[in-house]
TrEMBL record:
Span covered, complete protein: 1 to 293 of 590
3-hydroxyacyl-CoA dehydrogenase C-terminal domain sequence ranges: 188-284
Family: Belongs to the 3-hydroxyacyl-CoA dehydrogenase family.
Record protein name field: 3-hydroxyacyl-CoA dehydrogenase family protein
3-hydroxyacyl-CoA dehydrogenase NAD binding domain location: 8-185
Length: 293
């Protein structure tokens, strides 16, 4: 049976975009990565090369399969290249106006049948869809970090998303080896709706000097059986991303649990964004490294 969406464009090759490009190419699909920033594009390709080399080392794929995977990914700064895809996944920063502009542009560029998916975590999919003339073909596809590893994808339907598009998005994620869940269009969807108040409270607890970062993280790992503590997870997600997500959720929910803890703003202003910059709540061996010093 032919794969759903044999050609997929990923617009924005940051941490999430690069991971999604990798797993999509791994599923046998051709991937067109669109990234305006040349440094970010090079970093994304480097990350995919490293991650797939690790998979070969772990005997999860052969060297030939890796070569095939890498050959299926092309990276360009031309958005018009997305017109070749049947599915476009947007992974650009969490700013509504930016996403609306991009979707209006994609709507002009792409054939009428192309499905446009947003990777937003906390913005309204409906408002993003409203920037297009095809809101019934717009859906949310929310992957989790690190995308090559995490099993879940939230498939987000608006009131206008057609059943056919939601089903195709669902089948696409299953084809990537993921387990989709279906959610309506509400800030944070299922996971972040529950997770981010907790992460925010952990940052506030650390900020109040109630406990050390190590003890906060150890408590949640060892007391609740979580794979990592909240401050380590904030570093993985990115302090700037977490702050932006919380701001967007707070703007929609007006729930004070989502009002970003001041320390998130301070770390973000200082460029201490977590693993990706080599320092956040913790210090790492190098930017992008998971090794805590
Ligand atoms: N890319 C590719 N593979 C990765 C990776 C990455 N960024 N990070 C880890 N891995 C792989 C490792 O290579 C390793 O594979 P191997 O067994 O073949 O060597 C495997 O994952 C396990 O990694 P580690 O042994 O280094 O460490 P852990 O066992 O602690 O697992 C973890 C790492 C998967 C990140 C785990 O700690 C975890 O599940 N943490 C929670 C992550 C989480 O909650 N993510 C959701 C964040 S919220 C979100 O994304 C929403 C967004 O909107 C903000």
């Amino acid at each position: 049976m032919a794969a759903v969406f044999p050609v997929v464009a990923v617009v924005g090759l940051g941490t999430m975009g690069a991971g999604i490009a990798e797993i999509t190419a791994r599923s046998g699909r051709r991937v067109i990565g669109v990234e305006l920033d040349a440094t970010a594009a090079a970093a994304a390709l480097h990350r995919i090369e490293e991650s797939t080399a690790h998979s070969v080392e772990r005997a999860r794929m052969t060297a030939e399969e890796r070569a095939g995977l890498l050959s299926r990914i092309t990276v360009t700064h031309e958005l018009s290249a997305a017109a070749e895809a049947q599915l476009v996944i947007e992974e650009i920063p969490e700013q509504l106006e930016l996403k609306q502009e991009l979707f209006a542009e994609l709507d002009r560029i792409c054939p009428a049948g192309t499905v446009l998916a947003t990777g937003t975590t906390a913005l309204s999919v409906t408002r993003i869809a409203a920037a297009t003339q095809r809101p019934e073909r717009v859906v949310g596809l929310h992957f989790f970090n690190p995308a090559p590893v995490m099993q879940l994808v939230e498939v987000v339907r608006t009131v206008l998303t057609s059943a056919e598009v939601a089903e195709a998005a669902d089948a696409f994620t299953r084809g990537l080896g993921k387990s989709p869940v279906s959610a309506g269009d509400r800030a944070g969807f299922i996971v972040n709706g529950l997770l981010f108040a907790y992460l925010n409270q952990a940052a506030a607890m650390f900020e109040s000097r109630y406990a050390t970062r190590e003890d906060i993280d150890a408590a949640m790992r060892l007391g609740c059986g979580l794979p990592m503590g909240p401050l380590a997870l904030l570093d993985l997600i990115g302090v700037d991303t977490a702050k932006t997500v919380l701001e967007a959720m707070y703007a929609q929910s007006h729930d004070r649990l989502h009002a970003p803890a001041p320390i998130l703003g301070q770390l973000a202003s200082a460029g201490l964004l977590g693993r990706k910059t080599g320092r956040g709540f913790y210090r790492y061996a190098a930017p992008g490294s998971s090794q805590v010093l």
